[in-house]
Amino acid sequence: YGEGNGTTGTIVFGETTCGQGADQICGAGGLFVDRQGIIYYSDSSNNRILKITPFVSTATIVASTNGSFGSMTNQLNNPGAIYVDMNGTLYVADRGNFRIIMFPSDSSTGTVLVVLAFYHTGKKVATVDDGANGCTFKFETYQCDYNGELFELIDTVGLNEGSKGTVKPKDAMKMLIKFIKGNKRGFSCVLFVMPKGRITESFEKNHMLFYQTLLNGKTPAILFLSHCESDEPMNKWITNEENKTALAPYGFSDVVCGTAQEGGRFAQLIEPLRSALTIQIEEYNDALLYCKKALESFEKHFSADHRYIANCYCNIGVIYCKLKQYDLALSYYEKQLNIQLKTLPAYHFEFGVTYLNIGEIYEARSEFDLALSFYSKANEIFQKVSLLPTHEAVIELQQHVQSTNEKISHE
Q: TPR repeats located where (predicted)?
């Protein structure tokens, strides 16, 4: 749509019907447009990410190339929001797999950054109301693919207390018993979820009802302890002898400590996405805060030469450059470069971006000879990896070389 015109649009890609072809899309999960107008499209129903050049009839599949849903690192399941950083790294909210996965610019195999381990139970959250006068009994059955094996999950979040409940509690209990007894295939496992802390009377009653009474204590049961995001290590609560003793009578096959809250411990690993977004909207102080939180988290979880840490250095350098704190920006770019020299092949695209960034710093400091030297290194890398002249990194490099030469001519 043209600016100020929300009524008449122009189709830049796709047909009018859903499909799996290279010229078709099916389902809108998310969209990102880079500085050169290239569109990255989350084709959710086809479980893939497309790279689209406007008005070109076919697209390139850049993630989940086989188009089938799955949980392997080269597959997606109902992808949603996406983001592409200045290095060409693609970040995908892989909704069906409850994770955020990162794809480097030259790879169709991703790396899982965050596993959102059912941070909400099922697809919606049960409400509890002090004025409850009834229950609404519902449940959802859905399938989950994990490492190529299909699991059926039954989510009872719909056993829902609320002031607008329409089923009396005793009737809801009858329906629950009928539901469990009517399942002829039985249950392989029962998952209890309890917030970390004191074992409550309601938890004891639920355990007695589900496990001991309805399932006769024969089905394996696992306890998921939520709200452990601030513990270090995360299983700190369960290692406490008093807590272990309190749980012993319940006979759980295993206890898992984690977070069932949006944010929590996993929020530290989402900081790179937050920082990227705040850089885009030029909220640089907020972006710097998110980047440093991400760096702190990554330094705890990964080796000093890990690419996640290198990417954090890059993002912090970008922010300091935007804030015109060039010495600090240069120091972080150099930290990134040191990791790249240890971990990347000699002619890798990311070297070119780093050299371009360092050249920009020297240009801003009016050290033009050094700027052109690093621009030359960037150009050599881009030629070695066969970037097209229309690539945004090549265009940006050409613009900086031109502006540097113009500044030299005016000295």
A: 310-343, 352-385
Average pLDDT, integer, range 2-25: 68
pLDDT in tens, 240-288: 888 888 888 887 877 877 764 443 444 444 545 555 544 554 667 777 8
pTM of the complete model: 0.42
Q: Which fold has domain 303-409?
A: 1.25.40
Tokens of 41: 């499209």
Domain with CATH 2.40.10.500 in the chain: 28-115
Q: Which fold has domain 134-257?
A: Rossmann fold (3.40.50)
The second-level CATH assignment, the architecture, of 28-115 is Beta Barrel (2.40)
The larger pLDDT score, comparing residue 81 to residue 169, is at 81
% of the chain with per-residue pLDDT over 70: 65
| Mean per-residue pLDDT of the chain | 74
Would you state the pLDDT for residue 359?
96
